[in-house]
From TrEMBL:
Domain HTH araC/xylS-type: 259-357
Region (Disordered) residue spans: 1-20
Keywords of this entry: DNA-binding, Transcription, Transcription regulation
InterPro entries named in the record: AraC-type_N, Homeodomain-like_sf, HTH_AraC, HTH_AraC-typ_CS
GO CC term, one of those recorded: cytosol
Ranges in coiled-coil conformation: none
Name of the protein in question: HTH araC/xylS-type domain-containing protein
SUPFAM superfamilies assigned: Homeodomain-like
MF terms in GO: DNA-binding transcription factor activity; transcription cis-regulatory region binding
Classification of source organism: Bacteria, Pseudomonadati, Pseudomonadota, Alphaproteobacteria, Rhodobacterales
Biased composition (Polar residues): 1-11
Length: 379
């Protein structure tokens, strides 16, 4: 095959549409906190509720599922209707432990904060699907990450700020209201939003990160909790097992190997390794077996990786706020030049050209273009 033909195949691989995965959902009780803040008689409230097929008041079945994409969009719409741009942050900082229902006693009686957060994250997977909650420990600190896997669910500013603020509020209730994290990062641009965010978290806050992250000192995580009683351990284990079985979501329908691999790549891009050997091991098969099974579906590992990279690149570039160097790191490239070459092969244009177009369309044409200078300076 000629070099030109190979490049065309690569571009087509990036553009090819993935098989539709199962719909992302979350439990209905997450909507209750939003709906309760909206005045029932206001015309805009009624219109918003009707648009998203919701009703005023609390859900009759708080554990019923609701589409995650519609939830994120409704959260953004509610913030607009209420003229509360920090709506998600406000709800998060007012979160109270007992609002998570029967899981509350497990958190309140955990031996350490680390154990309490482990329980919380375990049940998070039952409350909300298609979401990655990551934990990484390094240099005396632990990084807790949160991200919705589907990049088509965007914007999701209110959900992200609500989730991290809620986690911070939870920790302050377990430790002390004076507690503060080491650092907080958000996947969205926080330009113009820094003040309220820093006032609540009381620590450095940044945006355009690969995930929504809260950094916590290991000393805080491993300090014994005052409410811990050693005799609680057997009872806690029994309660947790029963609750997890009751709240466990229905098993996913059978998904093909390409679909499962696409989801893994999407979850790990810019956060963890996405090499063939690692992902094959997670899927429980040898790399050669994975290659063979992908071949039976007429696809390959590189095709799926390129497709997910392109999908995420186009979504983040459309915001007009991310730097090309940041995007290259998010997508797992060693440097900006390698990403720029790949993006041009896929789309026929440079990422800077796509970024400029996005900025023009959303009124950010005057934003600094420092990455353009860096790109031109590179060989």
């Amino acid at each position: 095959m000629s070099e030109q033909g190979a490049r065309q195949d690569t571009a087509q691989a990036g553009r090819r549409k993935a098989s539709a995965p199962a719909e992302a959902t979350l439990r209905q009780f997450f909507l209750d906190q939003i709906v309760s803040e909206m005045p029932r008689t206001a015309p805009e409230t009624r219109q918003a509720l009707a648009r998203f097929n919701l009703k005023a008041g609390k859900s009759q079945n708080p554990y019923a599922t609701y589409p995650l994409k519609a939830y994120a969009a409704f959260f953004e719409e509610a913030a607009r209707v209420l003229d509360r741009p920090y709506f998600g942050l406000e709800l998060g900082q007012n979160f109270r432990l007992w609002e998570i229902g029967p899981v509350y006693p497990l958190l309140a009686t955990a031996p350490t904060l680390r154990e309490a957060l482990a329980v919380f994250l375990r049940f998070q997977a039952s409350w909300q699907s298609h979401t990655t909650s990551s934990v990484h420990q390094e240099f005396g600190q632990t990084r807790y990450g949160y991200a919705i896997n589907d990049m088509e669910i965007w914007p999701r500013v209110q959900d992200a700020e609500n989730s991290i603020a809620g986690l911070c509020a939870l920790i302050r209730q377990l430790l002390s209201e004076r507690w503060s994290p080491v650092e907080v990062c958000f996947e969205h641009d926080i330009a113009g939003r820094e003040g309220p965010l820093k006032r609540f978290f009381r620590c450095p806050v940044s945006g355009n990160a690969a995930s929504n992250i809260i950094w916590i000192g290991d000393a805080d995580l491993d300090r014994p909790m005052q409410t811990w009683v050693s005799s609680n351990a057997p009872a806690r284990a029994i309660v947790e097992t029963h609750l997890f079985d009751l709240l466990r979501p229905p098993e996913d329908e059978f998904r093909s190997v390409p679909e499962r691999l696409s989801q893994l790549v999407d979850q790990r891009l810019g956060r963890e390794s996405v090499d063939l050997e690692t992902l094959a091991d997670i899927l429980g098969m040898a790399p050669r077996t994975l290659r063979r099974q992908l071949g039976t579906f007429g696809t390959s590992f590189s095709e799926i990786l390129n497709r997910e990279r392109l999908r995420k690149a186009e979504m983040l570039l459309s915001t007009g706020s991310i730097k090309v160097s940041q995007l290259a790191a998010h997508l797992g490239y060693a440097n900006q030049s390698a990403f720029s070459r790949a993006f041009r092969e896929w789309t026929g244009e440079t990422p800077m050209a796509a970024l400029r177009r996005a900025r023009r369309s959303i009124g950010k044409a005057n934003a600094p273009e420092t990455d353009d200078i860096a790109t031109r300076a590179q060989p």
